[in-house]
Input
Amino acid sequence: VKPDGDNLLVSTAKGLFKAKNVMVGIGRMGKPNKPDYKIPPSLIQVVNYNLNSCNCGEKIIVVGGGNSAAEYAVDLSGCNEVTLNYRRSTFTRLNDINLAAVEDSAKNGKLTLKLGVDITGIENDNGKVSVNYSDGSVEIYDRIIYAIGGSTPVDFLQKCSIELDSDTKPIVDENLQTNVKGLFVGGDIASKNGASIVSALNDAHKIINYIVNNKA
Output
């Protein structure tokens, strides 16, 4: 995203778009963490770090213990067979809403929880993901989604000419506007301690109200 006269020029994989106002809400998952073990290149089409390319009717494992992992798992469980794997025996980082959603989905049989077990590696099994667990068990899935955290996408923000503080957090005013007029940042990357998708939506509402009220 770069200034272009009185507008902002947004570069995407599908071309260029002009907008007067833009909000960046990609979160730290915009630069997701990856597991320590090797991911076979042949599985690239069924290894995700977000919900892109997911279809109904798949057997999916979501890896992680944070709010993004919980939200992914609950959302996907509506039309998929989903397992949520977390290496700890209990969830310690979920907000109350996501914890309740996970527990309800598990209680109703919509979501399988595999807690206290880590993944040691994955292999290609005829185009599917063969997951090797630390307890010696192995299970096959159609897709694996890693939601194991991420870091602020510094390179992207700098390309947008957004100023960052010493903690690589975007500098914004009380309306979440950056140093670039009309360019806003909300959600996870605008929060000091991290936030969920809900926070990004709330920030978007705040920004829209500011734009409408000030005809920005």
About this structure: The two ends are 17 Å apart (CA to CA).
